[in-house]
Amino acid sequence: MKMLRFRSPSIRSLDQEVLCTIRLLDDSEISCSIQRDTKGQFLLDHVCNFYNLLEKDYFGIRYVDPEKQRHWLEPNKPVVKQMKSAQQPYTMCFRVKFYPHEPMKIKEELTRYLLYLQLKRDIYHGRLLCPFAEAAYLGACIVQAELGDYDPEEHPSDYIRDFKLFPKQSLKLERKIMEIHKNELRGQCAALAELNMLQRAYTLETYGVDPHPCKDFTGAIAFLGFTATGFVVFQGNKRIHLLKWTDVSKLKFEGKTFYVIGIQKEKKLVLTFHTSTPAACKHLWKCGVENQAFYKCAKSSQIKTVSSSNIFFKGSRFRYSGKVAKEVIEASSKIQRDPPEVHRAQFGQSRSFNSLSHKNLIMNMEPLVPALPSTIEYEEAAAAADSSVVAVKDPVPLSPLEPPAAPAHTEQLSTKGENSSLSNDLQSHCVSMETSNLRPQTPKVEERLEEDEEALTISELSYSPCASMLPTPVDDSQAGASLLFSSPVQSPARLLRELHADPDIQAQLEAERERERAYERARLAAAGGISGALTSSLRLLSSNERVNTCVLGLARLVAVVVGVLLVTVPTLLLLLESDIDVSFLHEIRQTPEFEQFHYEYYCPLRRWILCKISMAMENLSSD
C-alpha cells in the first residue's frame, strides 16, 4: 500500500492531517495523508501519478456522504469541507467520470485498460445493459483478456462458471461465451481483446450512462443519464427520451424536482422528474451541468457559471472546471512518450469476480434484480438479437458470433493514421497473432437513423441497475428502488400541471386551452361585460407559463421594495429625531417640510403614544 503526504505552504501540526483511502478500478487501494486545506485536485493527481496516467481528464474521484448520497469530488474545493461529517479515514473511489465518445481516439493503452476495467464493472452491476448476443461477445472478450487462449488442459469444461461477469448468468450464456472464446478470439493478446470489448461496448445504448433513479410525473420509476450524445431517460426496456446537447437549453432543480428544458421538433419541451431527496436532485443537476459542458463546449473558455435560480433569488451556482472533450482529444494526440507499462490485475483479484479456487471475495452490494433474463428468455432473445438493439450513435448488426471480416471502406471510426498506429502498438504486444486479427473487430456502420421520433427499444430486458449504483442503496427484498422515494405520488392537480413533460399530452392540453379561449372569447362578445373581460384576461395570464414567471418575478420585486422601505423609513425617522449631529441630517432638519412634519404629525403622534403607555402603566399599577 503506497503512502504519500501532501503539505501546504503553512506549517500545520500533525494532528490536523487526515488519512484518505482511495479504491482503484481493480479494487486495490492506495492511501495518503492530506492536510485540512488540501484540495480535491491533489488526490486526483496522486492517483494519476500512481498509474503514470496522462489522459486523466476522463476520470474523477467519487465518495459517499453519511446520508449515502454519492458525489464527485470537486477539484477546486478542500477535501475536508466536501466530506463534511464523514468518518475518518475518508474512503473514496477512482472511477471513469466522462466516457470517451470514441475509444479509438484514446492514445495510450493504459487509459484504454482503465476504461476496460470501468466497463467491466458496469457490465457486472447492470449499468451497461447487454442483449444476449452482445453479452456473450463482451463476456468472451473479458475471458480472453483475463485468461488468454483457451487451453483444454488448463481450463475445465465449466471454467466460465468461475467468472462472475453478470449479476446472474445462465448456463446457455456461459456456453456461448465459451464458444466465442474458443473459436473466434484465439490469438488475441489482452490489449487487443480489451480494445475489441471497448469497440463493441460503446455502440450500446447504455454506454457511459451513470443511472440516476427518479420518478416521472406519473410516479413511475425512470433512470436518467448523461452521455456524450445528450440527456437520456430509460424506463422499462425502452429509451423514452433522448435530447441531444445542442437541443438542451437549460438544466435546473428546485428541491426534489429536476427540470430539463429543451427543444424538440421546433417546440419547447420541459421534462419534469422527482428524486428521492434534495441532495440527490442537486447531485443530478451538477452531473448534468458537467456533462453538458464537457461534451458540448469546444473550448474550456466557453464554460459559464450556471445557476439553478430565477431572476431575483439566486439558487445553487456551479461551474465545471476542467478540459472539454475536444481539448482532451487534442492533448492526447500530442503525447510523445514511450507507452507506460500496464500492470494488469490477475484473475480473481477484482471483487467483481470469483477466483478459480472459489475464494470468497467481498461484494459492494447485491444486485436488485437480474440484469439478464432466464434461459427461456435467452432462447427468445437469440432469435431477435440482431435487431433488438439500436445504438445511440450508428446502428450496428449484432453478429459477434461470426468470424471477424476485413473492415470495409465505410468502417472508419478514426483517421487512417490512428488506426495504423494503434495496430502497430498492439502488434508489438501480440507477435504471434495472425494478420487478420491485428485490426480491432469493428461493427459495420450503416446509415444514421432518425432518433428521438419514438420510444426506442434497447433490449428484451428492463433497465434495472443494481443497488450499488443507487444514491441510497437498498435491497431487492425491500422493494428495490421504489423505497428511495418516501413521498407519495403527487396529487392529481399537480400531475395535471406537470403533464407538459410528455410532448403528445402537451399538444392535447394546448388544443384544450385553445378551445377554452375560443369559448371564452365568444361568451365575452355576447355579454360585453367588464367583469367577463377581466376574468378572461386572468385565465389567459394563468395559462401562459412565461407570463406567470414574469408576474411572479414582479411580485417578488415589489415585496423586496416594500420590505426595504419598511426598514429604511423608520430608521431614517429615528435618526432625524435623535440628537445625532451629522451634516446631512442637520440640513434635513432645517427644511420647512421636515419642520411641518415634526410639529403637525410627529409630535402629536408621540404625545398620543406616551399617553397610552402611561395609562397602561397606571392600570397595571392599580391592579
Quick structural summary:
The protein has helices at residues 40-51, 79-83, 109-124, 132-147, 171-183, 190-201, 278-296, 325-333, 375-383, 416-429, 492-497, 503-527, 530-543, 545-577, 583-589, 592-622; strands at 18-23, 29-34, 59-64, 70-72, 90-96, 212-215, 221-226, 230-235, 238-244, 248-254, 257-264, 267-274, 306-307, 317-318, 456-457. Helix content is 39%, strand content 13%. One of its GO terms (biological process) is actomyosin structure organization.
Describe this protein's structure.
The relative contact order is 0.10. The strands form four sheets. This protein has a five-stranded mixed sheet. Strands 6-7-8-9-15 form a five-stranded antiparallel sheet. It has 623 residues and is α+β, with helices and mostly antiparallel strands. About 21% of the residues have low confidence. Helix 3 crosses helix 6 and helix 12 runs antiparallel to helix 13. It is 39% helix and 13% strand. The protein is built from 16 helices and 15 strands. It starts with 17 loop residues before the first strand and ends with a helix. Among the domains are: 81 residues, Ubiquitin-like (UB roll), CATH 3.10.20.90; 95 residues, Acyl-CoA Binding Protein, CATH 1.20.80.10; 109 residues, PH-domain like (Roll); 73 residues, no CATH class. It is elongated. A hairpin with a 2-residue loop joins strand 11 and strand 12.
